[in-house]
Amino acid sequence: MIDKKLKEIYLAGGCFWGLEKYFSLLTGVVSTEVGYANGNKNNPTYDEVCNGSGHAETVKLLYDAEIVSLKKILQLYFDVIDPTLKNRQGNDFGLQYRTGVYYTDENDLAVISAIFEEKANNYSKPILTEVLPLNEFYKAEEYHQKYLVKNPGGYCHIGKDKFDINKINGR
Length: 171
Known about the structure:
Layout: E1 6-13, H1 16-24, E2 29-37, H2 46-50, E3 56-64, H3 70-79, E4 88-89, E5 92-93, E6 99-103, H4 108-120, E7 130-133, E8 137-139, H5 147-150, H6 165-168
Parallel strand pairs: 6-7
Antiparallel strand pairs: 1-3, 1-6, 2-3, 2-8, 4-5
Helix pairs in contact: 3-4
């Protein structure tokens, strides 16, 4: 059983390697896991995701809501994505690289909507990031988990300056 103060949210933001590392540094995030969300095939492989299964590369965040709020998580999320791009972030193109916020708790929708309304004022183009209930999430292959920790020189569309733990945590 999950501790009642622990909550989950699923974030798609281009390649999941950098998004996973970024949020793993945030105080209050208990665990991160990369995988594939909201597609058309059960238990897809990475190759199937790259070839049209319809899934988004997504990071599952389990967080302690008494330490970090969903609002803070979403504000940081907007700091590392361009929500005006469709099916791409950085050098990554394709449906699997779309941005999305997938929730499991209907009560989170009010917070998500408020942040999206607030952030919309920062862009001259419309926000294309999807906000949907999570339909399914399949854990990605083990070599994708903590990829940038295992491969520090690996590609990431998120600039290395964003991985400053003190900046992430507001210190």
